[in-house]
Specification:
It is a single chain. The protein is α/β, with parallel strands linked by helices and 314 residues long. It is 49% helix and 15% strand. It has helices spanning 2-18, 22-35, 40-53, 57-69, 76-81, 92-111, 143-146, 179-196, 211-222, 241-251, 268-280, 301-313; strands at 115-119, 132-136, 159-164, 167-170, 173-175, 204-209, 230-234, 256-262, 284-290. The strands form 2 sheets. The protein has a 7-stranded mixed sheet, sandwiched between helices. Strand 2 (132-136), helix 7 (143-146) and strand 3 form a beta-alpha-beta unit. The protein is globular.
Length: 314
């Protein structure tokens, strides 16, 4: 129940924020702080940003200090790049917060290594061999938090693998910023899956969300290090669109791609451009647009996920 409450609060905060109703978003965040203490890391971020946005700079700094006291931190570049936090840039206390976050990030990176989470369907549903879906988390995500979005495929007899990058981004958050390193870690993850599980090499799908979605698209298009049947990309964060379009022509007739996005997503225009050009080059591609959706999973993602699987493997 609490998980659903937190998701509701998150949607409310985002809705008010998009409408420029920052004080109302702040009131929702304050209520979430009371009702969902287990989500303190995320809510402290909301509070810090919204206090800054509404001019309550001291309270914004207090939220950051509370987060540090609890052992949390964020990538210092994220703090510098977020427009909500620009009013804090001239404060010495904020500079100290940046320095402490950078110190914690370097310490975490020194200890970090890639992880791999593999979930299997129940034995009654297990095909021999089962198909495999590999899901790549977003920038700032991690495997345990990301896997539940994809677990509906377990009821359809699919094997699910969720690699976690070793590239540290925040407290319990990781990223795929270094593309070459990401490709090497995907290679290692795929070999580990092959050595520990039996699956159908002709029915492998790459999937992902945000940065993970764009990495999944590039990897699927170039057919290396993972050869796959198709790709499911949820709100892909296209940062190398030209490269993706160049690879799309080579993948025509070999690959099926499903793009899920919203018309309020900040990468919506790039996703539309990729879809249009990919079709022109002969790639089997579908674009599913959710009205009003931003950079997030669609509310009926479980159903859409199963539809995407059907399109790719049919």
């Amino acid at each position: 129940m609490k998980a659903h409450a937190f998701e509701w609060y998150g949607r409310q905060v985002l809705t008010f924020y998009r409408q420029g109703r920052y004080r109302e978003a702040l009131e929702v965040a304050r209520q979430a702080w009371q009702d969902c203490p287990e989500h303190d890391y995320d809510i402290l971020w909301w509070l810090a940003c919204l206090y800054s946005r509404t001019g309550e700079l001291e309270r914004s700094l207090e939220a950051f200090q509370e987060a540090l006291k609890r052992g949390y931190w964020w990538h210092e570049q994220l703090l510098l790049d977020d427009p909500d936090l620009e009013p804090l840039h001239g404060h010495a206390e904020f500079q100290g917060i940046l320095a402490e976050c950078a110190s914690r990030r370097h310490a975490a990176q020194a200890q970090s290594k890639p992880e791999l989470l593999v979930l299997t369907p129940s034995s009654s549903l297990l095909e021999h061999p089962p198909p495999l879906l590999i899901a790549l988390h977003a920038r700032g995500g991690n495997a345990p938090d990301f896997a539940p979005y994809w677990e509906p495929i377990l009821t359809q007899g699919w094997l699910l693998a969720v690699p976690q990058s070793s590239q540290v981004f925040s407290h319990e958050g990781f990223c795929w910023d270094n593309y070459d390193q990401a490709q090497q870690e995907l290679t290692d993850a795929f070999e580990k899956i092959r050595s520990t599980h039996t699956f159908d090499l002709n029915r492998v799908i790459l999937a992902g969300f945000s940065q993970g979605a764009s990495l999944a698209i590039l990897t699927a298009l170039q057919d290396h290090p993972i050869s796959c049947r198709g790709c499911i990309a949820v709100v892909p964060a296209f940062r190398n669109l030209d490269r993706a379009l160049l690879l799309a022509k080579q993948a025509a007739k070999r690959l099926r791609v499903v793009l899920m996005t919203g018309d309020q997503d900040r990468y919506y225009a790039q996703t539309q451009q990729f879809y249009t050009e990919a079709l022109r080059q002969g790639l089997e591609c579908q674009l599913w647009v959710e009205p009003g959706l931003g950079h997030e999973f669609p509310p009926d993602f479980a159903a859409k996920l199963l539809q995407a699987l059907d399109f790719i493997v049919s």
